[in-house]
Amino acid sequence: MIRVQQEDFDVAAEIARLKEGRSDIGAIVTFTGAVRDKGGAVTEMTLEHYHGMTERELERLEAEANARWKLQASLIVHRTGSLQPGDNIVLVVTASEHRDAAFDAARFLMDHLKTNAPFWKRETGPSGSRWVEAEPGDAIARQRWHQKHAAE
Amino acid sequence: MRLMYFAWVKEKTGIAAEDVELPDSVATVGELIAWLKTRGPEFANAFEQSEVIRAAIDRSHARHDARIGQAREIAFFPPVTGG
C-alpha cells in the first residue's frame, strides 16, 4: 500500500495495522526518513510533488519490490507540504517470512524512491530559501541494484 | 496538450500548468524543449540548462529523445529530491 499525505505517521501504529489478524509474518523492517536542521541551516522544509505521477511511481516501485522478493506486506508513506526539523518525511515498511527479503526490499524501495518519485524539497533557513539539489550518490545507489541484477 | 512545470522549473516559467497547441514540427521531448525556449525570456531561462531537466509523458518518466505521440500531459521538472 502507498500513501501520500500531509499528516505525520505513527510507525508503531502502522506496524500494528500491517500485522493485524495475521501470523505468517516473521520479519518486519522499517525505514523512517526525517528532516535534519543541518546545524541550524534549515528551519523549514517544504515538499512539493506531482500529484498523480507520485502515486503511480510509488505503486510501480512497490509492485517491483513485490515481484523481486516474497513479501507478506509492504507500505510506503511519504509526506508533503511544510515540515520542521525533526519531523518525519518518509516511511517504508516491508514484512516477510525471513529477514533478508524485508531488509533488501526496504533498501530497494528507498533507493528507487530517491531517484524516481517526483518530490522536490525546498529548504528555508536564516540565509534564505533554496531548492535541494539531487545527490549524485542517490543515482549510484539505485544503479547498484541493476548491476547486481545483471550479474545474477 | 497540457504542460506542467514543477519546483524551480515552475518558478522560472512563472506558471504551474498550461494548455498549448504544439507545432507539427515538434515530435520529441527534446524538440518540445527547444520550442518552449523560443516562447520568451522566462522560458529561455527555465530551459537554459535543458540537459538537467527531467520530463514525464502522461505521468511516466521519459527521456529527451522520447516521442510525444498522442500524449495528453507532459511535465518538466528538476531531478527529484524526495525521501
Explain what you see:
The complex is a heterodimer of chains A (152) and B (83). Chain A has 4 helices and 8 strands, in the order βαββαβββαββα. Chain A has 152 residues and is α+β, with helices and mostly antiparallel strands. Chain A has a single domain, classed as Molybdopterin biosynthesis MoaE subunit (Aldehyde Oxidoreductase, domain 3). In chain A, the strands form 2 sheets. Chain A has a 4-stranded mixed sheet with strand order 1-4-6-2, with helices on both faces. In chain A, strands 5-3-7-8 form a 4-stranded antiparallel sheet, with no helix packed on it. In chain A, a hairpin with a 2-residue loop joins strand 7 (119-125) and strand 8 (128-131). In chain A, helix 3 crosses helix 4 (136-151). Chain A starts with a strand and ends with a helix. By secondary structure, chain B is α+β, with helices and mostly antiparallel strands. Chain B has a single domain, classed as Ubiquitin-like (UB roll). Chain B has helices spanning 7-13, 29-36, 41-46, and strands at 2-5, 17-19, 54-57, 60-62, 73-77. In chain B, a hairpin with a 2-residue loop joins strand 3 and strand 4 (60-62). The mean pLDDT of chain B is 97.
User: How far from one another are the termini of chain A?
Assistant: 28 Å
Q: What is the name of the CATH class of chain B?
A: Alpha Beta
Under the CATH scheme, the architecture of chain A is: Alpha-Beta Complex
What structural class do you assign from the helix and strand content of chain B?
Answer: alpha+beta
Strand content of chain B: 15-25%
